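User: Before I run my own analysis I want an independent prediction to cross-check against. Here's the chain; please return only the structure tokens and, at the end, one sentence I can use as a sanity check.
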Amino acid sequence: MKKEFWLERWEREEIGFHQNEINSYLRQYWNELHTAKNAEVFVPLCGKSSDMRWLCEQGHRVLGVELSTIAVQAFFRENSYTPQHSTAGKFDRYEADGIRILCGDFFDLNKDELANVGAVYDRASLIALPPEMRERYARHLVSILPPATQILLITYDYPQHEMPGPPFAVSNGEVEALYKRYANVRLLAQQDALPQNPHFQNRGLSRLQESIFLLKLH
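Assistant: Structure tokens:
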């Protein structure tokens, strides 16, 4: 999957993956991480997610990374922030009121940029990637995070042949396989999510499971 795919989705406003409401699992399970109030939370492939605003309201500093300038600018505009804009290495940097978003390629991030991160919130990153990219994503993510960082991960699983991604189906077994070398993997909950997602029913899905994981890096 090339960068142009996502850039074009934002340009055409084909952003069905965006959630206007704060994610209910984030609200319900965030305290499982016991993250210090002043800790920085990393949100990969953040889009214009309102979840970043919620995390900031909990007292956290937020660091996002997003490929699309349209998405980054929309986040600050729609939340009535006036960001400062600068360049930092390979990224355009936008920052306001404790929220900093680096506009550029996730795979260009390094340890220095994530040195102060204490937790990660991944609702839409792993499931946005096709199978051939997910191992690379997980490997790069854990390589740039500080030791003992915790990750709240939310995934979808469904019969992949019934619907082309994204979002892609990621089984609980795949999550275990991707991260077990690097982290303790704990399944917090799994839900039948199809009744609450009629748009997925309309796309032909017969089953949709949503799983919430807590990962703690070694």
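Sanity check: The chain has seven helices and nine strands.
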